Amino acid sequence: MDSEMDGAERYDYDLIVIGGGSGGMACAKESAMQGAKVALFDFVKPSTQGTKWGLGGTCVNVGCVPKKLMHYGALLGGKLHHDAAKYGWQVGKDVKHDWATLVQTVQNHVKSLNFSYRSGLRVANVTYINALAKFTSPHHITYTLKGKEPTTVSGHYFLIATGGRPQIPPESEVPGALELSITSDDIFSLKRPPGKTLVVGASYIALECAGFLTELGFPVTVAVRSILLRGFDRQCSEKVGEMMFNLGTRFKMQVTPKRMSKTPDGQVEVAFSNGDVEAFDTVLYATGRHADTKGLGLDKAGLKTAANGKFECVHEQTNVPHIFAVGDVLFGKPELTPVAIQAGEILARRLFAQSEARMDYENVPTTIFTPFEYGCVGISEEIAIERYGENDIETYLFEFMPLELAAAHREKHPQACTSEMDVDLPPPCLAKLVCVSSLGERVMGFHYVGQNAGEMTQGFALAVRLGAKKHDFDTLVGIHPTDAESFTAMTVTRGSGESWVATGGCGGGKCG
Amino acid sequence: MAPIAILAAILFCNVAASNVEEMAAGHEAHVTNNKSTCPHSFVEDTQTLAKAKHPTSKESDVVSDEVQGAVIGGIIGGKNGSAGAVGGAMHGTGGAMYGGLMGSSGTATSAAPLSRYDLVVIGGGSGGMAAAKEAAKLGKRVALFDYPSPQGTTWGIGGTCLNVGCIPRKLMHYAALIGASFYDARLLGWQLPDVRGQGHSGIAHDWGQLVKFVRNKVRQLRFSYGNALRSYGNSLTYVNALARFESAGVIEYENPSSGETQKLTADKVLIAVGGRPNIPEDIPGAVEHDITSDDIFTLDRPPGRTLVVGAGYIALETAGFLNEINFDVSVAVRSVVLRGFDRQCAEKIAQLMAEVGVRFMYSVTVGSITKKQPDESGLPSLEVELRSRDGNIVTEVYNTVLFATGRTPETASLGLDAVGVKYDAQTSKIAVNDVEQTSVPNVYAVGDCIPQLELTPVAVRAGEVLARRLYGGSTEKMDYEMVPTTVFTPFEYGSVGLSEEQAVKKYGKDAIETFLLEVETAHTDPPALSRLAHSSAPLLTHFEDLELSGVHRPKVATARSDGFDIFLSASNLSKLVCLRNENNRVVGFHYVGRNAGEVTQGFALALRLGATKSDFDRMLGIQPTDAESFSGLTVTRRSGESFVAAGGCGGGRCG
């Protein structure tokens, strides 16, 4: 990208990375491996509740990693409460959960990762500086180490990878919210059990937190302003919500909190837009995240951002040609760890290894780790219809109960039972392929709600990238008995009017 | 009255199938005259159940022909048969119910002309049922003979997979996984006791409950399979009888109610009789005292101290789940574990099993089995003479000896020689061409009785594809290449394509590039760090998944080499075998770890589409999963590099 590497000699570093999360570290290490001299700045501003953490960014500290561990703990709860006794384990009724033990195990693991990331940077020869960096000119930044004078260093290239942080509405919008609510920045290290919890928002973070708290045994209410999981496939999003409701999560639809105050016994009393007033032990906001780009001295570098603080980039390049951005600060790109990592690595090779490869932001698979997970790659049915027209879309559907859960006859939470007879959990798994007829039934959208959706979706994501057609799915032989094999035998289309809910059966398979 | 009771039960189940506990045996059918030949009676007794659950039903002194007649009526008579039963119009004569079988006339006299079927399927397992249903769907008249076991261990429709294979095995596997997760659960806050003397799990397990539970699920599924068959009405006739060839176009069988020999003509015949476990007749005591996978899922007492003989996937799966549900398990391995699978992965599986408590005895065979007085808990005591290759003989006592040393097709009684259907004299496998046709042109075979992959989905697909070729104008052949499979050991092993050894053999060592992932978890606790420092396995390509590295599962004491060696080895192994001169096209995908079955399925599709290594590299991971490990494989076996990533977030890279 820049062949005049000799110019770099005038600078302290070939590359200065601001932000030690997934994208920043990946780019820093790859650049160093290609021979560049690299400095990486990481500094964690405390959350509104004062929570701080170590190197590694959102994913490791307050994102995917602790979330997945809590999700795993929560799934075990489901197994202990519903399945274990039926499968012969004498676990006794109503196994209790201790929040503090969970937090300790999770935090121990997070700290071990912080440690390994520091040594990873050291091994890669990246200079790690634990300080907040600010631009003072397009090629200079200044930082202050604790108890030291400010220092200025220069760089040839810069990468901004500061990620995002959760938002809580200001005092002027929802009085009390900022002071009395926590966010995903706080929940994974919360010292006290969350107790009765209100989750505000219906983003994937909101639903994931509500999901694991429900399965851990806390009474959880989700306040939804409009719809669940905006941007995702509607049918699957609603399925995720329906299954959470069946497991005991309460949903308050079309409401927002208006006001919060502390009750004498320490609870948070929330007044909702519909007039309801209810007290909770914990209020968790998950209504969105903002890019953490304020305070970087952007104007000194001549950097421009969109209204939401994100950078509108072309191939990760900002409006200032030698300053780049990856990860959650990119405008209009998926906020996902593997995306940030790959973009960072590819960028490093473009900058320092004469590569011309570009990051491909299409067909990125993702999974929401709600109790029944939702994995997808490609486009939703709605977008497919918008893009290709309803007549050109064929949607294949199959809904079923996994073998292991079918055998255990899992029951619904009482709130979801309409009568004494209506106790069985409905089939939690939904397999869905969105195909374009005029392209030979090419699969443009793969969607799966069910256990292990994350593990299952990955391989299919590769197949979808390779242009898999419905016929290819049909000639694939299943692995029996799995849930994934459901995709090898889908015959019912939405247009057919037939029921796509499996009768009897052995999970995703076809044994008879 | 018994038939009515059974049919009533069937109807009852229609209304409340979930209440299988209350359900009589569905359409399970016994072949009573053979039952006595079964060495073990771990068998559901239709009669007893019918009596127990329906005390008003009149006692009959045999598990009668009437029952069978009624059962068949329930299947083949469809709604009419059931309605008749409810109306009390049915008198329990099997012959009457055979009306459905013998044609619309409803008469079944020996003087009647032979009924003609487009397709006769012999074997009511996965492949047979799939072909029968597909043919019926295509408008053909089909008879499906479900093949009762000559050894007398009886079950119902559904064949191996449903009754004594994948389904009960996966359920017991799930029970085992729950047991293995108690350790994790405690660390993640669940207040479970950890009781000494209750195996590795620390929680007592009730084998009887598990068996009852699994049996109920199997019975319920069997019932739904019966319903599915019944839904084809007169197009599909189900007969629970042993069929044999009189000629290539005439099938004879004993009417299960009257006992008389009957015949029907078949335009085409499909053999799908599957296989049964081998029982070594040359080992003294084996036939009398051993059990097989046919018996374990219904064993009416806890297995106790168990010896599994064999090291194929059935042996290891069985040893794996028994170990996790608190039993003391040893495996006698004659030569290697999981022959035919990728060596590195197979050995990884055995290593992990040893670390969670399974005892492996290599180069060991069984000399004899002698029954002794039951032990103090009332379980059988079997004295087993074990012979090692170097001539040592030791005697050990077990409560259960399970043989899993291979399976053989059940073709002996079919009369294949008489019609000239060729089969391998050694293996009994029926020879077929690439359209599943045997040496006799109108006779076909699918499933475990042909020399192909012995997998349910393969049999199902082959049966369907065959039916479509025969009756639906299709030309599509069954593609036996790139078929994925998974071994459901405690840590599962999923694969598709070639093993590294097969690839090297087929293409030559220089043509193969094997990509491996090594991510060692960074433990910050001193013992683990010490272990890391002393790690001398540079090319072992393991990572530990996030959830397990979060809790540091321990090894059992017997698998520890020293005081620092306390944690389970990395639980995951990801491996791609590629062809160098074809742009590193991936010809082998191998994965050891949790949920390998679910992980492997999608990648199997990608391999079928010709995925290359760079396609894998460009694929973005799903964070944090184990499956995402395949998006970042950088180390090749050829490079000789040791790549120890300080990872720790499972298959992914967080930083």
TrEMBL record, chain A:
* Residues binding NAD(+), per UniProt: 201-208, 288
| Known function | Catalyzes the transfer of electrons from NADPH to thioredoxins TRX1, TRX2 and TRX3, which in turn act as reductants of disulfide containing proteins. Able to reduce nitroglutathione (GSNO), a compound involved in the transport of nitric oxide (NO); however, TRX1 is more efficient in reducing GSNO. Has no catalytic activity towards oxidized glutathione (GSSG).
Q: What keywords were assigned to this record?
A: Disulfide bond, FAD, Flavoprotein, NAD, NADP, Nucleotide-binding, Oxidoreductase, Redox-active center, Selenocysteine
User: Which cofactor does this sequence's record say it needs?
Assistant: FAD
Record GO terms (molecular function): flavin adenine dinucleotide binding; glutathione-disulfide reductase (NADPH) activity; thioredoxin-disulfide reductase (NADPH) activity
Q: Which GO terms describe its biological process?
A: cell redox homeostasis; cellular response to oxidative stress; glutathione metabolic process
What are the FAD/NAD(P)-binding domain coordinates in residue numbering?
Answer: 13-344
Entry-linked Pfam families: Pyr_redox_2, Pyr_redox_dim
> Quick check: keyword Disulfide bond in the entry?
yes
**Cofactor: bound how, per the entry note?**
Binds 1 FAD per subunit.
* Pyridine nucleotide-disulphide oxidoreductase dimerisation domain residues: 364-489
Q: Which EC numbers does the record give?
A: 1.8.1.9
Catalytic residues in the record = 480
- Gene Ontology cellular component terms for the protein in this record: cytosol; mitochondrion
- Give the protein's recorded name: Thioredoxin reductase
Keyword Amino-acid biosynthesis present in the record's keywords: the answer is no
Q: What class of enzyme is it?
A: oxidoreductase
Residues annotated for FAD binding in this entry: 68, 328
Source taxon at top rank: Eukaryota
Q: Kindly give the SUPFAM superfamilies that the UniProt entry links to this protein.
A: FAD/NAD(P)-binding domain (SSF51905), FAD/NAD-linked reductases, dimerisation (C-terminal) domain (SSF55424)
Automatic annotation (TrEMBL), chain B:
Cofactor(s) recorded for this entry are: FAD
Q: EC no.?
A: 1.8.1.9
UniProt xrefs under PROSITE patterns: PYRIDINE_REDOX_1
Q: Which residues form the FAD/NAD(P)-binding domain?
A: 117-463
Instruction: Alphabetically list the UniProt keywords.
Output: Disulfide bond, FAD, Flavoprotein, NADP, Oxidoreductase, Redox-active center, Selenocysteine, Signal
Any keyword Transferase? no
Superkingdom to which the source organism belongs: Eukaryota
Give GO cellular component annotations, separated by semicolons. Answer: cytosol; mitochondrion
Residues spanning the signal sequence: 1-17
List residues of the Pyridine nucleotide-disulphide oxidoreductase dimerisation domain: 573-630
Name one molecular function that GO assigns to this entry: flavin adenine dinucleotide binding
Q: Which residues form a coiled coil?
A: none
Gene Ontology BP annotations: cell redox homeostasis; cellular response to oxidative stress; glutathione metabolic process
Q: Which PANTHER family does this one have?
A: GLUTATHIONE REDUCTASE (PTHR42737), THIOREDOXIN-DISULFIDE REDUCTASE (PTHR42737:SF8)
Similarity comment: family membership: Belongs to the class-I pyridine nucleotide-disulfide oxidoreductase family.
- Mind telling me what this protein is named? thioredoxin-disulfide reductase (NADPH)
